[in-house]
Design brief:
single chain, 3 strands, DNA-binding protein
Length: 73
């Protein structure tokens, strides 16, 4: 069995957005984010966290930076 030590996130849960919420903030369809992630591994530099149930959580700060015209980190 592989032992992976993953440190818990120091960010509050509110700092993450579901795919549907992130897409709404970016004025996109959720499938656009999923397709970009599948094709290139990111959406405009944003890489989500994948939960064990398969859902994705996107960084709210990165979404806001993208909306303001900055580059997502």
């Amino acid at each position: 069995m592989r032992n992976t030590n993953i440190a818990p996130s120091t960010r509050p849960a509110a700092a993450r957005l579901s795919t549907e919420s992130a897409a709404a903030r970016l004025f996109l369809r959720p499938q656009t984010l999923r397709a970009a992630l599948c094709r290139s591994g990111h959406f405009m530099g944003m890489i989500p966290i994948k939960l064990p149930n398969g859902r994705l959580l996107w960084d709210a700060d990165a979404v806001e930076r993208l909306l303001s015209g900055e580059v997502a980190k």
